Amino acid sequence: MRRKSLIFILLAGFVLLFSGTALAADHSQGKDCLSCHPKYDHSRLQKYEGSKTCLPCHSDQVNEVIHSDHYTWQSKPVNLIDASGKSWPADKPVGKLGGLNDFCITPDINFLGILTNKNGVNVKGGCAQCHIGMGGNPAKLTEEQNKENVDCLLCHADYAVYNRNLKTVVYGQDGKYYYIPNTAVIDIVYLKKATVAGTVDITAALKSIKKTPDNKNCLQCHAFAGGGANNKRGDLEPIHMTDPAKVDVHMGKGLSCLSCHKTENHKIAGRGVDLRTNELNYNVRCENCHTTSVHKGPLGATLNNHIKSIDCTTCHVTEYAITQSTDVFRDWSQAEYNSVTALYEPKIERGQNLKPVYLWWNGTSYAQPTDAPAVFNKNNKYVPDRTTKPDYVTLFAPIGSINDPKAKIFPFRYHYAYMPIDPVTGKFFPALAGYVFMTGDTLGGFTKGYKMWFGVDLVTPVKWVYAERYMGLYHEVKPASQALSCTSCHSNRGILDWKALGYKGDPILYGARKLATTPVVKTYTVTKTTYLYATASTKAFKLTTLKAGTKVTYVSTSGNYYKVQVKVGTNTYTGYVLKSYLK
């Protein structure tokens, strides 16, 4: 019996030894673990509490997310200047948090809450409705708290079974607001709940988990930014989620948001005029897929030459807000009652089928600092409306001019608002938006916002000013058949104001812009000893001997010779050398 046991143990040892060797061999070949081991079934999880549930297996990924722009809503400024022309300090973060804007004023004091509408119904409120978190303000949480505050399913679950509209806001016994999935049963420990339509089947949501977000995951927030459908961007309408072919040639052919907005470790590429950061060293641009010789046919060369001064979007994004109107002007001094939501909102003027504004842009933006007095356009040489709207304050604008070799003409969306500043300090300040929405008292909302923002009471009447911004238009791209034609610009009724762009008139009549160019210096190396001749002939006078390895600078071409300049000892010569002796 002992002998049989010993034999069994030895056999088992050999099996383990060789299976271990085989396993190591498999690993060294870089095989996918899932080729042998089945994919983990997330629906086995009993409940979902945001990244707190995911953290045990995905700690690296959670750590990446909480340091991304999409989560922090803050980042280092990239190519950004203020009214003095100075670059923003690298250690001075920019973004939604800590900033002010003309749409929602600021998320800092309006992050998440519960509003009671005129029908007595509790509803969700706050900017966190478009944040990839579970309700906590990342700027006010510790590192460990942030690790449990990410809503992973918002991007990685199927939109049909889990999305931001199926979450509810609850008010806990700790005096804080949280987001939770609106399941059929909600824990009674919460003191207050905001009602929403529909419930979440957590099992179905967990079962639908995918590695890569699709367009609906992105657009559930980006198509509804600014408090409503297409309110903010103008070129990201809800129809992109259902029938994108009607408005965008790229999405219509099946491209995803991530086809252009490359990702790496949960960082996403993208930089706009008013989006002042780019967390990846990657520029999202048409030329990443289309070459600068993309145009063919009789006019191909002419159109390709246009790309030196005109961005592709100028001709291919001809209008925006095609199926859904967008916010054009937001008046924060007045409130209007919305019978659908039974809440108030600032007075909003909307527009549809809008045409872009065309300006030069070199990739650098101007931004009004939040913590500095408002700079009126008449005192700001970096904004487009310095003379036409001198008493406006520009919040965001493109930098560039006809004389800037890095600048091209781009299409922009224009938005403006009526906002208050403190007449004493000259600074903008926010409203407590939830108070405005529930009461319609805009001045009261700003008075309360002033106290929360500065920590003191507002003692002087506010000064109302117009604030404007320019936003890039990169979506709703038209195919070639629907793009601008030659006469769209070059005719008596052309869409471009040539003089405003710095031209004397239509370039067809007055000529294209002339830019000072830096000459390209070509250098060659002598491959074997030869002579430098006074003229392009071996019979000409020999100026000097050129030894193998000598560097010469190209000047011009003459038949089989290059005219070059070379320094030999203390003397500099200009002469001719056979091309065959150079590389």
TrEMBL record:
Gene3D superfamilies attached to this UniProt entry: Flavocytochrome C3, Chain A, SH3 Domains
Keyword Signal included in the entry's annotation: yes
Alphabetical UniProt keywords: Signal
Signal peptide: 1-24
Residues of the SH3b domain: 521-583
Taxonomy, superkingdom: Bacteria
Keyword Signal assigned: yes
Annotated InterPro entries: Cyt_c-552/4 (IPR023155), Multihaem_cyt_sf (IPR036280), Multiheme_Cytochr_ET (IPR051829), Octahem_Cyt_c (IPR024673), SH3-like_bac-type (IPR003646)
SUPFAM superfamilies for the chain: Multiheme cytochromes
Protein's name in the database: Cytochrome c
Organism: Carboxydothermus pertinax
